[in-house]
Amino acid sequence: MKALIFFLCLCWASVYLQAYSFTTSTQTNLYTPNTLTFTFSNTPLSAGTGTLYIYALGDFNASSEYATLKDENGNSLGNLFASTNQSQSQVSASISLSQASLNSWASNGSISFSLKPSSAVNNIGSPYAYMKLTYTDAVTLATANWTGANSNWNTASNWSTSAVPNNGTTKYNVNINNGSQVTLNTTSTVNSLAISSGNKLTISSANMLTLSNDGTTNAGKLTNNGNMVVNSGGSLSINSLDGTGSIANSGTMTATAGITNNNSVTNSGTMNVNGALTNSNSLANTGTTSVSSNLTNNGTITNSSGSMSVTGTVSNASSFTNNATVTASSTLSNTGTLSNTGTMTVTGAITNSSSMTNSGTLNANSTITNSSTLTNNGTVNASSTITNSSGTLTNNGTLNASGTITNNSSLVVGSAGTLKLNGVSVTGTGTVSNSGTITVNGGSSTFSNLSKLVNAGVLQTANNGTLNLGSGTLNNTLGTIKAENGTVNFSNSSVINNGTILAATNGIVNLKNATLNNVSLEKSSNGQYKQTGNSNMWMMGLIQNNDLLSLEDGAQSIINSDTTIKNLGTGSITVGGTGSDTGFQLTDGKNLTVEGGTIQMNSENKSKITATQLASQFINKGGKLKGAGQIQAALQNLANSSIEADIAGKVLQVLNNLSGIKNQGQLRALNQAKLYLDGVIDNAAGKIEALNNSTVEIASNGSINGGSLNIDTQGKLLVQQGLQAQGLKVTMNNGGNITVGNTLNLDNTSSLALGTSRDTVVQAGQIVNSGVISGSGTLDAQVVNSDGTIKVGNSPGIINITGDLLLGAGSVTEMEIWGTTPGDSINGYDQIIIGGNIVYGGILDVIVDLQKVAIQQLLNIDLFKFANGTASGAFSQIRFWQNAEKTVALSGLHLYHNAHSLSLNSVPEPSTFFLFFIPVFLLVYRRFHSRF
Q: Going by C-beta distance under 8 Å and a sequence separation of 6 or more, which residues neighbour residue 808?
């Protein structure tokens, strides 16, 4: 059978002792089925005989259906209501109580009884139960009215009773009126005290007034409508306080059942409230106030220099100011104005729905919930969660958070504020504005919604903390994200707009998943930037890099908006990778400009700068890209910039033969590395160099337009097919090598400066020169000097041509004579050695330095030698000069054609030979002229 559910509609008790009554508080709890307990509070401590009345409505129509009544010690007082009614009407019962039992139960100021239905009772109708208690009291009450001619409490004639009020067999209710000024100069106990308006009671030092709570009507109650002063050393003990008067306590004041203050209470001594304290006017404390139950403030509470402790709930609906110490062992609810400049410790939950300002120390040992204005200018130690539901939480001081912050409204960290997240996160849909410092002080903390975060201050880590930035866009203008003794991580959707990211001492910034827009990357001490593990990051706008930016092992930086990385100071970029491709990926036709600093490429197959569209450009502006890897985008290498292959045995490739290469700086191979260039090279104002046993290789049919090409000792230029040189200045040092798979074309603005020895080699299928070839070396090719100039040596030297030499009609061949030894740079003369045939043509200028050699010494000077070939054609002009400027002509020299050479002599040969040479010379000239 189901148990009866009792609804407690009304439980009360009233005792009439000389017009006194007692009533319990109403209970509204539901019991299913359980023991119902009825408590009568504020019962007189001294009792006569009494009667308990029990009223109920329920299923009591059978002998097994009843309710058992027990006293507060669990002793049964009988079974009630069996076979009386079935939920049709109320039934009742009563029992008589002895004086001894009542006195035993009432000794603590309350009496309790319990009622429990039997298991057979059904849940029918709307059952209820309540009780009423009455009993008499043997105590005699007397009313003592002040009538005194002087102020002395201890004078019997000052009282209407002609006796000094002091409880014994007779209990006194004391009234002070008639505009009196009374001084308590003794120790006295009374039942109650009422001070009328315009009257004053002073408890002098070393004296005590006790308002005894003995259970009689108004027992222990102080009704003060006048003025009461407790001097230092004095003592006031009451049960409760009411009235509109003021109390000034500098001694000891004890209220055992609470205080209701409607005027002014000033405490500079000790005030112990063993019940509830309700303030509806003014309470000022500079001493010690202790409240063992609830504190309710509807007026003004000022705790300026003392201490205040509250065991129950603190409810402030008006003004509460603490400049000293407040301890609340339960909850704090503020619907008024609360200001703390001292120390306030709250064990339970703090709820603010009005205005709360902390300029001291607030220790919150449970939750904080704010729905209005909460401002911290001091220190808040929050050991549990903070919920900012609909108000503004402003921190201008230090907020130590050890629980999650749920912000659905506005959280503001001022410029002087510090928010310390002790391994907790910030969640919610509200905004967070930081102009101060937010520190992840150990543990792991997450900002889940970056779109709601505005940082104009510092977001940082400390004590090995980890800051996780979630999804959304962070407005970081004027702000800094700082990893110091900790780590900063980004999520897949983290966008950082503007500001600075700083890798400081023992800090790691992991750029995996981040999107950086107009961000400055800075470093101090041993901080690190990393991006690892087959991950992406995105860059856009201006990225200022003051540190080492490291992309490793499959890390890709995606460029989907025109982006500039500006390396400042020691700023540099490392592109590593041993697994997947690592580096920069240019998308949507966007460009990447790297300004200043160094880009170090470490893997020839994995370190890459790639583009998904031909229009994308990698622009090197004043920086150095070096190492081994691949640039698979249109390249602009601007002035004061360099692209360097410098890892021995490895290749740095520039691969974009459709978009070409624009070089205004340096393209260089050194340290036994190879630089591979694929595409048309616009080299205006630029320089290409092959140094230190290194190679520059040009793919397929290459073209170099403008600038210079330097082949250093043991350096090599390798062209897979032909090479068009347009406005190109080529300089080769001894031991340098140029190999062209097909034809090397030098236009009329190009030049090829060989070295000073034959081991400077240009190898090609054919060399077609419309520019200037100078110096000494080997041209391992057929040379067609169609309308260009050949200047042998820089001082006298030798050019060795392994194939044919064809001198066109528009060509100039210039040779110097300083002595009589071929190729000697001090006492020699220029010589061209041809491995194949020679066709003469154009102009031959012979310059003789008469300060170094006399004309008479010039005998059999072989200017051209062709031991294995033949000669044909003729020069259109043969000019002899005695200065390099070719302004002073020279006479007395003659050229003679031998079987395998063309020689110069100062002595004429026999006329028959000379006459023979003339028609042969003219015939050769006509044949050559017809060919060119």
A: 784, 785, 786, 787, 841, 842, 932
N- to C-terminal Cα distance for the chain? Answer: 129
Contact call for residues 211 and 220 (beta carbons, < 8 A):
yes
Name residue 189's amino acid. T
Task: Identify whether the C-beta of residue 400 lies closer than 8 Å to the C-beta of residue 382.
Answer: yes
Determine which helix (DSSP H) or strand (DSSP E) holds 920, and give its type and residue range.
helix 911-931
Range from 74-78, 195-199, 575-579, 711-715 carrying the lowest mean pLDDT: 575-579
Cα–Cα dist 330/600, whole Å: 63
DSSP 717-767: EEESS-EEEES-EEEE-TT-EEEESSEEEE-TT-EEEEEEEEEEEEEEEEE
Q: pLDDT tens digit string along 61-83?
A: 888 888 889 999 999 999 988 87
Q: Report the distance separating Cα 102 and Cα 108, nearest Å.
A: 11
Tokens for 551?
Answer: 């992309």
Amino acid identity of 791? K
The DSSP bridge partners found for residue 711 are: 690, 732
Per the listing, tokens 């009507």 go with 217
Structure tokens at 700: 């397929």
CB atoms inside a 10 Å sphere around CB 34: 15
Average pLDDT over residues 551-578: 88
Block residue for tokens 């030092």: 205
Helix (H) or strand (E) holding 897: strand 894-897
Q: Assess contact for 112 and 66: CB atoms under 8 A.
A: no
Q: Which amino acid, one-letter code, is at 748?
A: N
Across residues 880-888, what is the average pLDDT?
A: 89
Give the three-state DSSP class for 450: helix
252, β-bridge pairs: 235, 270
pLDDT in tens, 96-141: 988 788 878 887 878 899 888 887 877 776 777 888 888 766 567 7
2 pLDDT band, cuts 50/70/90, is very low
Q: Are strands 221-224 and 240-242 parallel, antiparallel or unpaired?
A: parallel
pLDDT tier for residue 313 given thresholds of 50, 70 and 90: confident
Among 192, 240, 220, 215, CA closest to 43: 215
Mapped onto helix, strand or coil, the DSSP state of residue 792 is strand
- C-alpha to C-alpha distance for 310 and 331, rounded to whole angstroms: 10
Q: What structural domains and CATH numbers belong to the chain?
A: 6-135 (2.60.120)
pLDDT at res. 919:
38
d(CA 600, CA 593): 15
CB 649 within 8 A of CB 670: no
Would you say 79 and 147 are in contact if contact means Cβ atoms under 8 Å apart? no
Which of 615, 607, 622, 687 is CA-nearest to residue 653?
607
Q: What are phi and psi of 838, to 5 degrees?
A: -125, 135
What is the average pLDDT value for the chain, to the nearest integer? 86
In order of 53, 640, 670, 707, 719, the CA distances from 692 in angstroms are 116, 21, 5, 21, 18
Give me 390's structure tokens: 């609909």
Residue 369 is inside which H or E element, if any? strand 368-370
pLDDT of residue 269: 86
